[in-house]
Design goal:
Helix content of chain A: 10-25%
Helix content of chain B: 25-40%
Number of strands of chain A: 5
CATH class of the largest domain in chain B: Alpha Beta
Distance between the termini of chain B: 53 Å
Distance between the termini of chain A: 34 Å
Shape of chain A: globular
Strand order of the largest sheet of chain A: 3-2-1-4-5
Oligomer: heterodimer
Strand content of chain B: 15-25%
CATH superfamily of the largest domain in chain B: Sulfite Reductase Hemoprotein, domain 1
Shape of chain B: globular
Low-confidence stretches of chain A: none
Number of strands of chain B: 21
Structural class of chain A: alpha+beta
Mean pLDDT of chain B: 97
Order of helices and strands of chain A: EEEHEEH
């Protein structure tokens, strides 16, 4: 996946959200329509135009105290309106590593 | 073990206090992320995909049992119960919270550990041979010199904002276990024709998107001059290294563009000015640092005690492990034991807190309380009595670190890849796990012999894929994970960069490709003793390329 760190200008060709990491613990968060942040992708504000994405980004960048490194990430919308990550990177950010994490001995 | 003095302890404690204040100011909003980022990076704190990551320095890969217990404690208290040993002999915690980092760092500081200079454009943690001080063929313990340089460059104001990061390794044995030639600066202890000990100096190595092997710019440097010469190299790089283009900022580009001879000339000019000044080493200073390394009180023992032969006969598993994971020690009756952190289904380099605690206990019982970390992402108990090996093997097997696969195809070096890393383009760990699963039969692994597989999830090459016998590099193509395969790389004294064999293959085919390459090798080798790497050298990659792409 191309790193969003290389994201230079906003070009939106499908539904997107603005995502970042929470300052206190680095958890993945998504920008909400009311300007806040949520860890639930379903609660994220969806933009479908460059202007809409730009507006979300501007608000996110202004909120340096709560979220770090905001960027625009693609999402997929199912027929039922469910929001899913738009690529593997975002899938991993939302769901965690695709591998089993080490367990304590005896487990 | 190196014993820190009051100065070291004060330095580390002060850094914790400073960082605690910085974190508090960040959390209160007094510092912006732009202001805070360089400060956290100076302490090894990155922001990865899911969380902050702390990289902790393990200087020259040497740990005490007390320190290892603290690694376990922090993993349990502040993280998710495990840590990841890296290709630079460090450990990383992938789930640590910013708000708790100062407390974790204070805990580390209590055992003399810190994250300073594990990030940023400074001299990074010095690495060396994980068998330092115990390898039968070493000239002398390289850690004395690594420690001397470490002290000099730690928080050195002139070298805290260089064009890019700077990695130094010190080697000592004929067989290079420290991957010297892929470092910005490598110092290899050598003897000259007069029998004097000094250093061969190599510069300009590095992997990433533009891989180069380090070139020798000084075949013999007297030991008294090592600090002044290192300083001259750093100054030359600081002056001429490019700061305008991050992709051309490493010293390897400077050495390549100037040419090693011209670079050496610049270094020499600087060196002539400073070589007889305060950086010229006197024996007393070196002796003082050497004196801070404590060595075990070895007993007088014989090699090959009868218990070993009995145990080999009694347990096939012990016999296999002894042949694979145990090496000769410079002191008779002792052995060097490698603990494989590459169990089938595991993540290369990961160790749980429980494992770390258990290994610390075993180190106390069997290895004078000392543990080493190797760049291959395995651990080492460096001072084990040979007569204790059967008992130790049973204990290690009980905690899952006695897989006899060291240097075999499943002893894979792997970066965290897209499962953790914000720079990655593709996953590394699941690829490693699938390859290990395909080759789970240890008889097959032994039949294949020494075979190093290295996997990187992006071109930054933390998995050292360029120098893997089989190198695997994850790339992205139209949103999908693809992997380039190189063959013939090696990181030892005959360091070579691998050759790309053809178009990248999709995620699902990587393990198939490795199986094809292994099968081709078994057919191509002239005799069972011919190692994979030697077959590739003899035949070139063409027959492997044909095999891999014949049906793809």
């Amino acid at each position: 996946m191309t790193s969003p760190l290389e994201q230079k200008k906003i070009k939106v060709t499908g539904p997107v959200v603005v995502t970042a990491n929470r300052v206190g613990d680095g958890a993945v968060v998504y920008s909400r329509a009311d300007g806040g942040w949520t860890t639930a992708l379903d609660g994220a504000a969806i933009a479908t135009s460059s202007e809409g994405a730009q507006a979300l980004m501007t608000a996110a960048l202004d909120d340096d105290l709560r979220a770090v490194g905001p960027y625009i990430a693609p999402v997929k919308l199912s027929a039922g309106g469910q929001v899913r990550p738009g690529n593997l990177r975002e899938l991993i950010r939302l769901g965690g590593p695709t591998i089993e994490l080490p367990l304590p001995l005896g487990c | 073990m190196y014993v820190y003095d009051a100065f070291d302890q004060t330095l580390v404690a002060e850094r914790v206090a400073e960082f605690r204040d910085q974190v508090a100011r960040r959390l209160s909003g007094e510092l912006t992320e732009d202001e805070f980022k360089p400060l956290r990076l100076m302490n090894g704190v990155y922001l990865q995909l899911h969380a902050y990551m702390l990289r902790l320095a393990i200087p020259y890969g040497t740990l005490s049992s007390e320190q290892l217990r603290m690694l376990a404690y922090v993993a349990r208290k502040y993280d998710r119960g495990y840590g990841h040993f890296t290709t630079r002999q460090n450990i990383q915690y992938h789930w640590i919270k910013l708000a708790e980092l100062p407390d974790a760092m204070a805990d580390f500081a209590s055992v003399g550990m810190h994250g300073m200079q594990t990030s940023g454009n400074c001299v990074r943690n010095l690495t060396t041979d994980q068998w330092a001080g115990v390898a039968p063929d070493e000239i002398e313990d390289p850690r004395v010199w690594a420690e001397l340089i470490r002290q000099h460059v730690t928080l050195h104001p002139e070298f805290s904002f260089m064009p890019r990061k700077f990695k130094i390794a010190v080697g000592t044995s004929q067989h290079d276990r420290a991957a010297l030639r892929i470092h910005d600066l490598a110092l290899q202890l050598v003897r000259n024709d007069n029998g004097e000990t000094g250093f061969e100096v190599m510069v300009g190595g590095g992997l990433g998107r533009t891989p180069f092997l380090a070139k020798t710019i000084k075949p013999f440097l007297a030991k008294r001059d090592v600090l002044s010469y290192v300083e001259a190299i750093l100054r030359t790089y600081n002056q001429f290294g490019r700061r305008d283009n991050i992709y051309k900022a490493r010293i390897k580009i400077l050495v390549h563009e100037l040419g090693p001879e011209a670079f050496a000339k610049e270094v020499d000019a600087e060196w002539q000015i400073i070589k007889d000044g305060e950086l010229a080493l006197d024996d007393a200073l070196v002796d003082e640092i050497a004196g801070r390394f404590s060595y075990p009180a070895y007993q007088q023992l014989d090699d090959s005690p009868p218990q070993l032969a009995e145990a080999r006969r009694a347990a096939r598993g012990f016999d296999a492990w002894l042949g694979n994971s145990v090496a000769n020690h410079k002191v008779p009756g002792y052995a060097i034991v490698t603990l494989s952190l590459k169990p089938e289904g595991g993540t290369p380099g990961d160790a749980t807190a429980d494992q770390m605690d258990a290994i610390a206990d075993l180190a106390d019982r069997y290895s004078f309380g000392e543990i080493r970390v190797g760049h291959e992402q395995n651990l080492v108990l460096p001072h084990v009595e040979q007569r204790d090996l059967p008992e130790l093997w049973r204990a290690l097997a009980g905690i899952g670190v006695a897989t006899p696969n060291v240097n075999l195809v499943s002893d894979i070096i792997s970066c965290p890849g897209l499962d953790y890393c914000s720079l990655a383009n593709a996953r590394s760990i699941p690829i490693a796990q699938e390859i290990a699963r395909r080759f789970h039969n240890l008889d097959l692994q032994r039949q294949l012999g020494r075979l190093h597989v290295n996997i990187s999830g992006c071109i930054n090459a933390c998995g050292h894929h360029h120098v893997g016998h089989i190198g695997i590099l994850g790339v992205e193509k139209n949103g999908e994970e693809f992997y380039q395969i190189t063959l013939g790389g090696k990181a030892d004294e005959g360091a070579t960069l691998g050759t790309l064999i053809g178009p990248a293959v999709p995620y699902a085919q990587v393990a198939d490709v490795v199986e094809d390459i292994a099968a081709a090798y078994l057919e191509l080798r002239q005799r069972p003793e011919e190692l994979f790497i030697d077959t590739v050298k003899r035949t070139g990659v063409e027959p492997f390329r044909e095999r891999v792409y014949a049906t793809r």
